[in-house]
Design a protein that fits this description.
It is built from 6 helices and 2 strands, in the order ααααββαα. It is mainly alpha-helical. The chain has a two-stranded antiparallel sheet with strand order 1-2. The longest helix is centred in the middle third of the chain and has 20 residues, at 76-95.
Length: 179
Amino acid sequence: AYGLLLAHYQWGSSGNINYLSNAVDIINKGLKPSYVSKINRLKLSDYPGESDLNTRPSDWMFDHMRAYKKHTNDTKWDDVANNLYTIYEKIVTKYSSNTGLISDFVVASEPRPANPYEPQYDEGEYTGKYYYNACRVPLRLAIDFAHYASNNAWNICKKISQWSRKATNENPAKIRAGY
């Protein structure tokens, strides 16, 4: 859907392909009913029985949600983004106040990192840690700040940056794959 929005801005939608209309259809008929839970989280999948509580922070593309809202006028996307930032703050406050990092997967009504080896996740011992899924989160946040000047994104990025600069002694080559 986001790629179609970009195509609309690049080439317009008055030619053979109406990129904008196709994007809006995918957003309204595919993404929203399949992945947005009743409690304003992004579900891991559209599998029947998938919990509305399970979510993967690397999927929290806040800038995409803001673009979806802009092009559909559906405030649900604002609700989801705001709720996910609230979840982020709860996780950081309780589990990673010194780093600002979030785990690969978040579960439960009171948000927490998923336990290692929980059957619905395949990250093994790293499931509840900042690892190969969550390593995309700072990018998601930076893009939200760059495109939409999100204060939430700025505050989290600032915390992560301060921690990582100290943890690596100002040497980016020392950043590890996971923490």
